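How a chain folds remains the central question behind the approach discussed here. In the encoding step, the backbone of a single protein was reduced to a row of integers, each denoting a local shape. We regard such an encoding as a compact summary of how the chain folds. The sequence in question and its structure tokens are set out directly beneath this paragraph:

___
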Amino acid sequence: MTEETQRKDLRMPDDSEMFATVTEMLGGQRVRLQCNDGKERMGRIPGRMRFRTWINKDDVVLIEPWDWQDEKADIEWRYEEADANQLRREGHIK
């Protein structure tokens, strides 16, 4: 198989979303994130993801920063390791 046939169509960020990497698990459904815009934010794992999607350190996630408090964000999506590697190869994340 070639690399092109292994490529998947992945969920990409909307205008208000961006990629981030989990740098630290803080407990209480909170994580520390290193965002693609260079800022460090505190992320919140929403209830709809809490028991269905396990988020760990070094996972690549899609976040939506809060409008009223830019240093915080909600996690919208978690990428599998293979999907994160594809995003890195294509230059979407650092």
